[in-house]
Amino acid sequence: xxxxxxxxxxxxxxxxxxxxxxxxxxxxxxxxxxxxxxxxxxxxxxxxxxxxxxxxxxxxxxxxxxxxxxxxxxxxxxxxxxxxxxxxxxxxxxxxxxxxxxxxxxxxxxxxxxxxxxxxxxxxxxxxxxxxxxxxxxxxxxxxxxxxxxxxxxxxxxxxxxxxxxxxxxxxxxxxxxxxxxxxxxxxxxxxxxxxxxxxxxxxxxxxxxxxxxxxxxxxxxxxxxxxxxxxxxxxxxxxxxxxxxxxxxxxxxxxxxxxxxxxxxxxxxxxxxxxxxxxxxxxxxxxxxxxxxxxxxxxxxxxxxxxxxxxxxxxxxxxxxxxxxxxxxxxxxxxxxxxxxxxxxxxxxxxxxxxxxxxxxxxxxxxxxxxxxxxxxxxxxxxxxxxxxxxxxxxxxxxxxxxxxxxxxxxx
Length: 413
Known about the structure:
- This protein folds into 2 domains: about 5-270, Mur-like, catalytic domain (UDP-N-acetylmuramoyl-L-alanine:D-glutamate ligase); about 280-400, Alpha-Beta Complex (Protein-Tyrosine Phosphatase, Chain A).
- Helix content is about 35%, strand content about 20%.
- The chain contains 15 helices and 17 strands.
- The mean pLDDT is about 95.
- Helix 2 (about 20-30) packs parallel to helix 5 (about 110-125), helix 3 crosses helix 9 (about 240-260) and helix 3 (about 45-60) packs across helix 10.
- The protein has helices at about 5-10, 20-30, 45-60, 90-105, 110-125, 160-165, 170-175, 195-200, 240-260, 265-270, 300-310, 330-335, 355-360, 375-380, 390-400; strands spanning about 35-40, 65-70, 80, 85, 130-135, 150-155, 185, 205, 210-215, 225-230, 230-240, 280-285, 290-295, 315-320, 340-345, 365-370, 385-390.
- Its EC number is 6.3.2.17.
- One of its GO terms (cellular component) is cytoplasm.
- One of its GO terms (molecular function) is dihydrofolate synthase activity.
């Protein structure tokens, strides 16, 4: 079994929160995380686009920056970006071969191995700072074995309640675990949750309290954002769509200010960021456009609906597929008012995917079932359509639209 197949097989062992194994793994790899300053980016939704925007701003400042995100959409190497470019698959797999014996001896989980691999890749690539997207929660997530110079918490919503708790307060406490006493932090969480974050003793700047922003929609081009904070005022443009895209960009800019970046780098990086699969519009043939979005929980689905309404989209054909362990009724309630027709399908490589027949029971509007994502796409009419739900579904649809090859490996994490 080659190293990547071995790693993917580890997904079946599930998630086992805790920092002991990953700490020992990093010890066995020579403490690579000490070679760079880490920024942890957590939150229920928006952490990927916030992390990508912050990394783009640091890139624009001339720093050598690593960006670690999860899950990947189509190719495993997407998780490891240096200087705005994903690392070569050959480099990633060769380095994984060196991590494997250490990880096997410890019985490390899939995500713990991926975190250790990312740290080693970034150390050997000579990055100065690494922007690390937190996986699940925060307090016991493998990324929290690092010692961040800055922590970012985008927001808190109900998701993974079976692990993190079934109240916003409980989830906020888990997310707050990535904060460090006396260190800088920025957040976009609701005001009533801020005291929970502040119990950790971090120096927190919050949107809506220390910092404020205004956003003007530029339609399909994104938004113009004005940020006012203790570090100064600035205005920039972001291609991220929707009110939540503008907020994520504002939070990234606030984080960049706390890291000492100047206005020019923030503006340049904000304009340059691209975050595939999240409100990403792609042409498909001469007559069709497809908007991709990984709206996999009610908060994400509500953000997608608000973005579409803001763009003047009232009714649109919808292709939907999701993991069976999500709040599917909540997601459907947010999306259904926008659907002119519904095509239900499932990610072929994800054993967690809900069966389309199960999803059909949740919709009150007529729906049809397509057994594969390719079949679902073939049924779309001319004009704009939306494909949303599981990121694993987006990861299978996107290469179909772009005419690219995808990895044919089972996806759990």
